[in-house]
Amino acid sequence: MTFSVYSATRFRLSRSVIYAMGHQPACIEAAANSEADVVLFELEDAVPVDKKNEARSNVLQALGDLDWSKKAISVRVNALDSPFTYQDVISLLESPVSSKIDLLFLPKPGNAADVYAFDVMVTQVERAMGRDRPVGFDIMIESTLGLTNAAEIAQASARIESLQFGSYDYGRSACMQIETVGGPHSGYQVGIDGQSGHLNDPFHYPLSRIIEVARAFGKRPIDGPYIADLNDYDADPTGFEASARRGRILGSDGKQALTPAQAAIANRIHTPTADEIERSEEICSAAQAADGSGVRSLNGKYLDEATIQTARNTVAKAEEIQRRS
Fold this sequence. Notes:
Number of domains: 2
CATH class of the largest domain: Alpha Beta
Helix content: 40-55%
CATH architecture of the largest domain: Alpha-Beta Barrel
Oligomer: single chain
CATH superfamily of the largest domain: Phosphoenolpyruvate-binding domains
Largest sheet: 8 strands, parallel, barrel
Structural class: alpha/beta
Shape: globular
CATH topology of the largest domain: TIM Barrel
Strand content: 5-15%
Radius of gyration: 20 Å
Strand order of the largest sheet: 1-2-3-4-5-6-7-8
Distance between the termini: 39 Å
Order of helices and strands: EHEHEHEHEHHEHHEHEHHEEH
């Protein structure tokens, strides 16, 4: 076993991460009433330039007016190549409701320096305001450069809690041909003349890479959105479920959702089964009983650290789900 072991980030239930468009109050209210574990307030791409100030104001007002006690709050600020990032950080962290913000979501970092610069900015504001609970970071990997440098990005700040897949912008960055955002393409098949193949997921590699890096450095991997119809996000619930299930099998902790219906599906897919919980509890008990006394094992089989950590995550997830119900 290598001595280079990275501690897991703090646990946070993240089966579903639902977008709430800052310039659309109805969308914010829908997110508040949804089953989502995390609400991601959107100030970036989906918000028109002339609506940026209005979006910030709407988010801050909603944080003060609505009940968010059963949800974590993340706010996606504008990317560092825009003129809006510093305004986002100051407005959010100097607000009287800033204590309700758990995470700041940084889009489109290309390298570790981008995260470092953002951390410096956030740290200065927090120190000036005397904030005693540092805000965490969600990081969106959504470009070929970001994916290439994902490992260094993941290590760029102690604030980082999650790496999330931005499938829409990644697809454009890679010049991919896309039929469904984050989903299959009918022409991407493995087989003779395309007739006998069943591998038609062109997003498999980037998602796998992000999960790999996140797990290596103790971060939560979160799968990106699935969009079959840009005019109707709920048009393909079966495709969304298949995408969410694929992500969980690969190791993601949760999935981004664009609607309350998608959030409910993501929650269901990423909720551990009774058998998984029972097995995980047995592993945790065996590990605790053996701490300091020798090799950890269950039913004669050696328990490695990865197995134990996975079991702990499952138990923590089950306990948090039970607490919120």
